[in-house]
Amino acid sequence: MDTQRPLPKPDQDSVAYWEAARRHELLLQQCSACNKFRFYPRCICPYCFSDKFEWRQAAGRGTVYSFTIIHRAPFPAFRDKVPYVLALIELTEGVRMMTNILECEPNMVEIGMPVEVTFEDVTEEVTLPQFRPAKA
Question: What is the arrangement of strands in the sheet containing 27-31, beginning at the earlier edge strand?
Fold first, then answer.
């Protein structure tokens, strides 16, 4: 377990998201007023400003919208991980999320590549949703 890298700190808006990730589930907020999904978790809909929403299970699939390959570790805890892919994934629900692409050589990643969620158990308390190339 890696405890040296910076880890997310759940707040009142995101605690349900992080608890679901620990169960290896990807949840998104869906606005009860306009029905749009949103990511990152927040208390107000960025589209209609409603404060009413429900947590919904995401399909866990999407495509690579953009990416970069990290060659220099930003923290000492990342030294053994370089090179790695930092990507913006467009989920089938229409939201984009920043994540890493795992189980794929960095030079094989391309824009438009289909991906699926996988989960990295970083500590006993923190599990990160990550993505990998989608299986056919």
Answer: 37-38, 27-31, 53-57
